[in-house]
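FAQ: What does a ligand-bound record look like?

Like this one, built around 4-nitrophenyl phosphate:
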Amino acid sequence: MKLLVICLGNICRSPMGEGALRARLAASPLAGRVEVDSAGTSGWHRGQAPDPRAIACAARHGVDIAGLRARPLQHKDFRHFDYILCADARNLDDARVLAPPDAHDRAVLWLPWAGIAGTSEVPDPWYGDEADFEHSWALLDAAAQATVRRLADTVESGIIGP
Ligand code: 4NP
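The answer part, i.e. the structure of the complex:
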């Protein structure tokens, strides 16, 4: 199973989401079985480390994302990844523009796909403060935990091999 987390800049939400997902997977029976990456629908921050506020937020939760580097989503990602997990509806629209017609459905809104009720989008904390980063982290980490549960069920039903 291969998962790609998407936001606009790939310096705030998606690196935090990638970090949360990596950490939750590593602590689960799925450790080593799921490939995780992140990308942005824009290439504005290509090659850059996550925003210092995102690095600090992840670190407060025991997750090190300082080594990640931003990259833009590419057409070929739709061939490689099983799911393209989008932070918000604009990301989903922008991602689907790049999708080959037969891979359109691989791009999904992460929160509802993971089974999170009540909120469908992770708000962009870029113009916000520490509390906004914490709010985005909480949603991303909830999605990461729900994703691990969803994939664990898939493994038990034999769809993912050992
Ligand atoms: P992200 O946040 O999509 O969560 O990485 C943003 C980062 C940068 C910009 C916007 C959102 N920007 O306008 O440069």
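Follow-up question: can I read anything off the structure? Yes, for example: Residues 7-13, 44, 124, 126 surround 4-nitrophenyl phosphate (CB under 6 Å).
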